[in-house]
Design goal:
The chain is an alpha/beta fold. It contains five helices and six strands.
Amino acid sequence: MQVAVENVASLYDPGGEMTGAEFANEVRDRTGCALLLDISNVVINEVNGFCDAAAEFDGLDLDGVVEVHMAGGELVDGLMWDAHSSPLPVGDVEWLERLLPRMPNCDRVIVERDERLQAGDELVEDLRRVRGAVDRALGAVALGA
């Protein structure tokens, strides 16, 4: 059985000398676990001022990613929360499309929705957008782009 560690969304600056990407890579190197990349959590951390999303994604060992989560966030009192309640932001889906060709071991993408389940039309639209991004990314890989 494979064990994976997920990057987190922060509501405060945890401090320290390592970036989130460096920490995830170090945990992977020391334990042999896989990475579960939550794209929305990286974007949330950027919105909250704790990282630069592009630098985080560039710093991650994407070969170790076996699964991607996406959930979007919700702005509350000036902080972005990992809320699992709103439609996926366009930017999160764009990140998925850009990153997926660099994740050769990723075999699933999870759209997380825990609240507002009665808004099924939003969830269906999120799934359509994610499916389109996956298809375009895999098409680019097949073409050698």
